[in-house]
Amino acid sequence: MTFRRLGWPAVALLLGLLCFANSVRNEFTYDDNSIVRANPRIRSLTDFREIWLTDWWRERAEDEPLADPARDRLYRPLTLFSFALNYALHEARPLGYHVANVLLHAAVCLLVWSFTRRLFEDEAIAGVAAVLFAVHPVHSEAVAGIVGRGEILAAGFMLLGLLTLLPRGRPAGVKRTLLAGPLFFAALLSKETAVCFPAVALVVLYWVNRERRLPLRWWLARAALLLAPLVAYLPLRYVALEERFIRDKLISLLFVPLHDAGLAARLHGPVTILGHYARILLLPSRLSCDYGVAVFDPRRGPELLTLVGVLTSAGLLAALIGYGRRSATWRRLAMLAAMFLASYALISNTLLLIGVSLAERLMYWPSVPALLAVAVAVVWFWQRYCRPDGALHQRANLLRLFGVLLVVALGLRTVVRNSDWKNNETLFRADLKTYPTNAHLNSALAGIIVRYAQQVTPVIDTTLAAANQAAQAGDTNAHDSLLRRAEQFRQQQRQMLARAESLLNQALAVESRFPDALRQLGTVCLLRGDEERALQSFEDALLLDPLDTATQRRAARLRGDMQGREARAAKLRTQVEQQPDDPSLRLALGRLLIELGHPDEALRHCEQAAQLAPNSAAALKAYAEALLLNRREQPALEVYQRVLILDPGDWQVHTNMVRLLSDRDPAAALHHAQRAFDLRPNDLRTQINLAEAYALNGRTTEALRRLRTIARNLPADHPQRRLVTDRIGELERKRP
Question: Please, which pLDDT band fits residue 24 given cuts at 50, 70 and 90?
Fold first, then answer.
């Protein structure tokens, strides 16, 4: 082989560095901004609890009281600690984080070579596998995106653990199995997908000991020792995730459409996902940072990639069956198929729905057995057909050149993809060229453009102020020049706002129930001076996400009397200081603060009011609302139940109970939705809530009947009519 003179490990290491070297110039991109750049938890190496006993997404924005309880519950403290090490060295400058990722990837390339060589005792297979792993574009998201480091660390620790279990010439003893435990534990602390390690390890152990007749107790002992780190990991995870193991609510259907899919889609959806992964591994021309409904939408039914998934499944099954054949190649492929399935099961969205439908970064570890299988096939083909007496010996040099060109092509694709990850704007623009109907990316890019447009406003104001000063000084030429410049800035801002609105309209055309796009559209309208439309957009967003306090404050300002309300709040604060035990003053201040979008302070006063007047339904109701705005759902539920004992006819409380019980107890949610509707039958919220509660309980026909009634009764220009009609379409597509 061509690379043998240089040494396969050196070639793999060099290619791993070269292909990703251009990513070190990148900025913070996508999730890097919240997990690294703006994350206060990584700014100290000694704050044990903040790094080791909190979940991955527990960053706190300035305008949010607590992290969203609907967030995906993830536990990756070792990855966070590695970011803290970076921060200790060079603070929030992205260069060092990117350099660390590239170096870690190069190290994993060496580990892939070492593991494959130990596994098959074949340098050619190990070399081809390591080279393919080093250059493959599917790894760009994990390496060029800083937060992808969790994937790299988990893969590295898993490979070290497997190497520990593969002593030369003898079965792994108890000591080596025990040594693999800390490595498995470190992999788990890097990323939870490493939970597949025991299954992968047992597959590998079976392969290397296939000719030995090891007793059952040997296997049971190894399995127990391999699983032992979970005894420490699971309690840590439970504590860090606030007494949970996974999220307790569904996340955005834009990211995981299978959450809302019918039975047919739940059956063919995972097959389509497998087809996507097969396509990304074999033909990585079309890549994306977001594989939501724009790329994978089970509501469309089976498609071409479903067929690819079926063929991939058939190939995996054929490989597994091939273990019964005498051919060494078939047996190797069977072992790698089993290893891939053990690695892929968790992310397949088959039995457990994870936080994304599919993602390139999730293929970082599963690509190891997949690319090993390709290497086994390539070396088998070469040895069979290109040896001196082989049928293709005369064309061996041409085939060798083809292989080199293929590696070069993969490497160049990786380099280009790394450049897409330079910053959010370049990433979103690149991916929208590939998938132009992606609602999430359209909205995200519009948000970037809106921020640019907002930055132009003070420039315009400063220029106009300078023009006024020039006019007062009698400098007509300077005045006219500054006015022309201000108009140029205005024109630039108009163009940016027009582009942002176009992107947002595309997003809302795909998914009208998208609060982020509605919030951005409100900002666009506000910058244009269209306050009426801006308020409507903000209120539409709040209908879908009523706990968004920042949008609540913006809507309150547009409704008017914001200054008057702030003045009343200041007066009430003074009165509360003078009479701290007056529940009516506390309640009035708490309610006003809720209206102003200050949930932290509102909670403090509402809680005091409820303690001072424990039998007041009004005080308890305000307290429950403040808890809900602070995303403390369980306490809010308990307080609302106390309110209903005191005042069972409060329709607003019944309406809020529907939201709180939807995921916990759908039948109870339907009961409260019906009660709220009976109490307030002409309110649009109670009507929609009742329809959604029917849908939640599987009574789709009744849900559709009510939604159609709502749509008929709404005027054609009513802002909520489109949301209702789109929901009707969603439910109709889900019906069997």
Answer: very high
Give CA torsion, residues 100, 106, 112, 117, to 10 deg: -140
Taking alpha carbons only, the member of 386, 266, 294 closest to residue 734 is 266
* Tens-digit pLDDT profile for residues 573-594: 888 888 888 888 888 888 888 8
Asked which of 532, 557, 582 is the last residue of a domain, the reply is 557
Q: Which of 544, 522, 512 is nearest to 721 (CA)?
A: 512
**Both tokens assigned to 373:** 């299988």
Question: Is residue 695 domain-shared with residue 662, that is, in the same domain?
Answer: yes
The predicted model gives 656-681 an average pLDDT of 86
Could you tell me if residue 331 is inside a domain? Answer: yes
Helices (H), 473-582: 476-510, 515-528, 531-544, 549-559, 562-578
Distance CA 316, CA 629 (A): 49
Whether residue 658 contacts residue 683, with contact meaning beta carbons closer than 8 Å, is answered with: no
Within 10 angstroms of residue 81's Cβ, the number of other Cβ atoms is: 18
Per-residue tokens: 359 = 């993602």
CA distances from 97 to 83, 188, 474, 644 (A): 7, 21, 55, 53
- Sole residue written with tokens 């001196």: 388
* Cα 580 to Cα 519: distance, rounded to the nearest angstrom: 38
CA pair distance 164, 183, nearest whole angstrom:
9
For residue 239, being part of any structural domain is answered with: yes
Q: Is 165:201 a contact under the CB 8 Å cutoff?
A: yes
Task: Count how many domains the chain has.
Answer: 3
- Token readout for 240 is 């860090």
H/E/C letters for each residue in 397-448? HHHHHHHHHHHHHHHHHHHHHHHHCCCHHHHHHHHHHHCCCCHHHHHHHHHH
